[in-house]
């Protein structure tokens, strides 16, 4: 009888998560429509809107590999921003992680503007992770916005190219 407990628990956990998932309204950005999630902060259980993995640059591959980032082309389909985007290539603990198509950002906001209302502007924290340009990630797992959201601050985290893929473009301008 005990061997059925783990599968049953897994199914119940998945069912519980599906009930807790609330989609944020689709917002229109300058590049196209984006769909996110409504999440809840840790301390005060404050609901906030999460849009993750939004591309800001074209994939830096081929000709663009060692060039400055090029703005992403607009899209017409709704972009699914419900999970973190890919991280940039790096070696961490002797393991290669990431992929080159990694120029994406995450936006967390305590509220969205309402149509026809004059919404008060909020403070914005634009977070660029450390890591000596060798490793790092803008994931909610590492840099969750919960405490700042509770202070009514919009949080933006960004993935950027690391190592030779990220620094050679700056050396070529000297």
Descriptors:
globular, 6-stranded mixed β-sheet, 3 helices, alpha+beta, 11 strands, 174 residues
Characterization of this structure:
This is Cholinesterase 2-like. It comes from Vespula maculifrons (Eastern yellow jacket). It holds the Pfam family COesterase. Residues 24-166 form the Carboxylesterase type B domain. Keywords: Glycoprotein, Hydrolase, Serine esterase, Signal. This protein has three helices and eleven strands, in the order αββββββββββαβα. Helix content is 17%, strand content 26%. A hairpin with a 6-residue loop joins β4 (37-40) and β5 (47-55). It is globular. The longest helix is centred in the N-terminal third of the chain and has 16 residues, at 5-20. The strands form three sheets. It has a six-stranded mixed β-sheet with strand order 1-4-5-9-11-10. Strands 2-3-6 form a three-stranded mixed β-sheet, with no helix packed on it. Mean pLDDT is 80; it is low at 15-19. With 174 residues, the protein is an alpha+beta fold.
Summing up helix and strand content along with how strands pair, one would put the structural category as alpha+beta
Distance between the termini: 70 Å
Measured as a percent range, the helix fraction is 10-25%
Low-confidence segments? 15-19
> In percent terms, what proportion of residues is strand?
25-35%
| Mean of pLDDT | 80
- What is the number of helical segments per DSSP (H or I, 4+ residues)? 3
Secondary structure: number of strands: 11
Largest sheet: 6 strands, mixed
Radius of gyration: 19 Å
Strand arrangement across the biggest beta sheet: 1-4-5-9-11-10
Protein name: Cholinesterase 2-like
Family: Belongs to the type-B carboxylesterase/lipase family.
GO molecular function, one term: carboxylic ester hydrolase activity
Domain Carboxylesterase type B: 24-166
